[in-house]
Amino acid sequence: MSSRLAHPDKDITTDGQGTGPGAGQGTGPAGGRAGKGTTWLQDLLMGVRFAVAGGREGWIRTALTALGVGLGVALLLATTAIPAAIDARDQRDRDRSVGEVAERKGPDAVLVKEENTQFRDLGITGRLLQAEGRDAPVPPGLTRLPGPGEIMVSPELAALLDTPEGRELLAPRFPYERVGTISEAGLIGPKELAFYAGTDAFTGGEDFVTRVTSFGDTYPSEPWDDPVLLLLVVVMFVVLLTPVAIFVATAVRFGGERRDRRLAALRLVGADAAGTRRIAAGEAAAGALLGVLAGFAFFLAVRQLADDFTVVIETRFFPSDFAVDPALALLVTLAVPCAAVLVTLFAMRGVVVEPLGVVRASKTAKRRLWWRLVLPLAGLGLLYPMIGQGEDDGEFSEWQVTGGVVLLLVGVTALLPWLVAFTVARLGGGPVSWQLAVRRLQMSSSAAARPVNGIAVAVAGAIALQTFFVSVQGDYQKDTGMDPSRAQLQVMVPRQTEASRIPGITKTISEAKGVTRVTALGDTEALADNDPEGYFSVTVGDCAALALVAKLDTCSEGDLFLLRMDHEAEEYTPEGEVKPGQKVLLNPDGSAYEPPVESVRWTVPEDAETAEARRDPTGLLRDGIIATPSALPGLVSGSYRYSAYVTLDPAVPDAREYARNAVAQADPLLYPVRLEEYRVVGRFQSVTKGLLIGSVAVMLLIGASLFVSQMEQLRERRKLLAALVAFGTRRRTLCASVLWQTAVPIALGITLATATGLALGAVLLGMVDRSVRFDWTAVGIMAGTGAGVVMVVTALSLPSLWRMMRPEGLRTE
Amino acid sequence: MMPAGPLLAADSLHKAYGPTPALDGADFSIHGGEVVAVMGPSGSGKSTLLHCLAGIVTPDSGTITYAGRELSAMNDTERSALRRSDFGFVFQFGQLVPELTCVENVALPLRLNGAGRRDAERTALAWMERLEVDDLGGKRPGEVSGGQGQRVAVARSLVTNPKVLFADEPTGALDSLNGERVMQLLTDAARSAGAAVVLVTHEARVAAYSDREIVVRDGRSRDMERVV
Lengths: 813, 228
What we know:
Structural class of chain B: alpha/beta
CATH architecture of chain B: 3-Layer(aba) Sandwich
CATH topology of chain B: Rossmann fold
Structural class of chain A: alpha+beta
Mean pLDDT of chain A: 81
Largest sheet of chain B: 6 strands, mixed
Distance between the termini of chain B: 23 Å
Low-confidence stretches of chain A: 1-37
Oligomer: heterodimer
Radius of gyration of chain B: 17 Å
Strand order of the largest sheet of chain B: 6-7-8-3-9-10
Number of domains of chain B: 1
Number of strands of chain A: 25
Helix content of chain A: 40-55%
Number of helices of chain A: 21
Number of helices of chain B: 8
Number of domains of chain A: 4
Strand content of chain A: 15-25%
Mean pLDDT of chain B: 87
Helix content of chain B: 25-40%
Radius of gyration of chain A: 36 Å
C-alpha cells in the first residue's frame, strides 16, 4: 500500500495505513456528493455523526476526547467557582456575626459571649447565650436559643464528642445537655467545630459579654485591598487555568491518527480535502461538546464530595457553595467546542488526507525561534511597567498582570517544541534503546513536546508562585512576640471574678494532668496624681508570678517594686517610670460592675525598690509597679484583671487538652488562649492552601492526559513492538526506549519551566518591591514533582507496553 | 547436501486462541538450507505455525525441536536469545522501525546482539548492497517505496546470518513485479548464506520459489509432495 504520491504543494509520502479500520465507513453521504456543491454545515454534521455513530473506533475516540475535555472543564468550573465558594462561607460567617447591640436590658436582646476553644490544633467556635426576653434573636442555624445548661453543636463537633478521645479530652469542657444540632446556615463549613450553649450566669456587665438585638453583619465585607494578595490570587488562577487550557487542547487531539485514517477512507469515496477538514472539525466539536456536558456532570458529581476533598481547608465547603456563574457556563459551552475546532484545524495543517492513505509532509517546516520568543518577551513587556507598583499599597491592572503572566506561560508552550527539536537533532550515539528513542524524538518532536507542555507550564507557574511566597510570607507570618517556652496557655479571668477565687482557680488548673505550673497575675491601671495623662500599670501577684514580668534578685510577701524599662523599648513612656513617694490614683476610671469599683488614692512607699522589667510569656512588657498582694491597699474585686499562665509538661500527650478541661471546670467563663510564636494571616493561608489544592489537581489532570497520550502512541505501535520482540529485541530495551522518549522532553521541559518560573517569580517580586530570593529546595521539589508525575505515568504505562509486546500483536486474522 | 536430521521440526502442535483452534495437530520439518513454503487459505493457521516454530508463540501441546534442542522447554529469555542469534524474520508490511533510517533498521539485530554501531552499519550496508538497496541507507522507511522497504526488511532478516529465516507473506503488500524481485533476492541470499527459509504464503507463484510445499488447512499440515 505504501507508495509515493504526488501532491501539488509538498513532497509527500504515504504511511501505508490507508485501509485501516473505518475504511468502509466512507460509503454513503460522502460518496454521493463528490463533485457537487455541499455546505460546510453538512460536513460538520457528518463529522458529528461519525463522532456519535462511528462504530467502536469512533466511540472510543469521542469518549477519550469527551473524558479529557470533561476533566478540564470540571477543573475549570471548580477553580472559577472557588471565589464564589469562599464568598458563601464568608457570608454565613457574617450572617452569624453580631449585628445590632443594645445598651440596656430588653425583651429583644440576648447576651452573647464568644467562648472559642481549641482541641489539639483544631479551632472550636463557641458562644454562650442568655436570652433576656421572649423576643431575643436566634442566630442562624438554630431553631431556638439553648436554655441554661443546654448546648447545640455542629454535626462535626457532635461526632468528635462521641469519640473516645472526645469524651476524655473535650467533653469535660461542655457540661451541658446536648439538645440540638446547628444546621448549614449557621456554619462556615461542614467540618466546622461549633457550639451554642445556654447560660443564666450573666448579669450583663461582664467583660466580653455583648447585648445583641440582631445577628448579621450589615457592614460591607472587607475588600481584597492588599495588592500582594490580589496579585497572588490573579497569578494563581492564571497558573492553574493555563495548563487546563493546554490539557483541553491536547484532549481534542486524542485519537487523531485513527481519525485521519477514517478520513482517508472518506476521500476514497469522493470527499474533497476541504470537506474532510470540516468533517474532522465537526467530529472534534461533537467530542468537545460532549466533553462540556461531561465536565458539568463531573463538576456536579465532584461538588457533592466538596466536604471530603477540600481537606486542607479545616472547615471545608458545603457542596452548594460551589455555584457556577451562568455567564461562565455559557462561555465554556460555546468556547470549548470552538477551541476544539480551531485546534483540530491547526493540527491538520501538516496533514494531507489522500484517498490511499494519510499523507504527511516528509520534511517538517523548520522551527523558527523568533516568533516563539515574541510571546514571553511580550509577557515580560506587559509586566515590566508594573515593577515597583505594589509599594505602599499601590494598584495593579489586573488585566495587564493576567495578560503578562498568560503570555509568559504560553511562551513556554511555544518555546518547548523548538527546544526539544533543537536539542534532539544534536543527540546521537548510545545504546539501542537510546537510539530508538532519539530517532523517534527527531522524527516527531512536537508529539513528544505536546504532552510535556502542560506539565512545564504548571511547574513554571508553581515555581514562580513559590518564589513569590517565600519572599512575602514573612509579611503574613506574624511574630506574635509570645514565648511558649515559658508558658503554653494564658487563662484570662473575667474582671468581675471574686479575687478570693483566684487561688482556687489556679489550684484546680494546676491539678490537671500534664500541668507543671500555674502562675496568676492581676493587672490594673493607675494614674499619677499630678498628671491626667500619666497612666501606668500596677501588677499584683506572688513572688513567683512577679518573676514572670521582672528580673528579681530577692522577693518576699509584702515586697513592692518599681519597674525600670529599657528606654529603647517600643513600649517605653516616661510616665511608666514611677517615683518613690509619688501620689497615685489606683484604678482611676472605676467601673460599672456590681458592686462598683471605686478609685483609691495611694502613695508609693519611699523605700520602694526598683526592678528591671521583662516581657511576660505573652510578650507584654509592663511598666509602673509590681507588688505582692499585701504591699498594696486592699482593692475590691473587679479592680484587677487576672490572667493565669500555665506551663505544661511536654512529655504528657494532650496536656493542653487536660488543662483546658480543668480551666472549664474551674469556671466556664475563664478563657484559655494558646501561646504560639507565629501566627499566619488567614487569607494568606487560604491562598497558599488553594494553590496546593489547585496544583495537585492540575498535576493529576495533566498526568491523566499524559497517560492517555502515551497509551495511544503505544497502541499505534502495537504491531511494530510485537515485530521487534519477534526478532529478539529484549523487552527491557523497549521499556528503556519508552522511558528515554519521555525523559528527554521532560528534562528539557522542566529546565525551561524552571528558568521561566524563576524569571516570572523575580518579576512578580519586583512588582511588589521585594528583594528576590530563591528557595532552591522548593524549586527542586516543584521540578521533581513534575518529573515524578511523568515517571509515574511511564511506570503505569509499562504493563500495557509489556502486553503490547506479546506476539499476539503480530496476528492479522 | 541435506543433513541427516531436520534442523527444525514440529510434532503434533496444538494451539487455540480462546475457543478458536488455530493449530490442530500440525507437523513440520525443515533441513538446513532448505526453502519450505507453508501454504493455505486465510485463517488456516499457517502464521500461527510460523510463530510457534520461531518460538514467538508457545503451543498448547506438541513439541518443537531446533538443532536438537526442545524449544518449548526454553524460557522466554532463551527463546529471545535464539531468535536474535539463529533466526531472521520478514513480515508482510516489513515492520521497519519508522524513525530509524534504513541502514539503522538493518543494523538493528546486530546492535541487539551487542555489536558496535559502526561495525553493525558496515555489515548492514553490505547486505543492503546485496539486496540492491544500498542507496537508501540514509532514508527513513516512510521515504521509500513498498518494494524497497521489503528488500530492506529482507536485508535486516539476513544480517545476522541466521540459520532459519521466517518469512510471513513477504510479498503480500507488493505488486507482482516487486514481489517477484523480492522473492528472487530473498531466496538467492538465503541459499547463498545456507539459511533455511520457512515461507508462509497463499500465492502459488511465491511458493514456486521453494524446494518443498506444505499445506495447512484447519490447523493441520500436509506435505504437498505426498499429495502429488
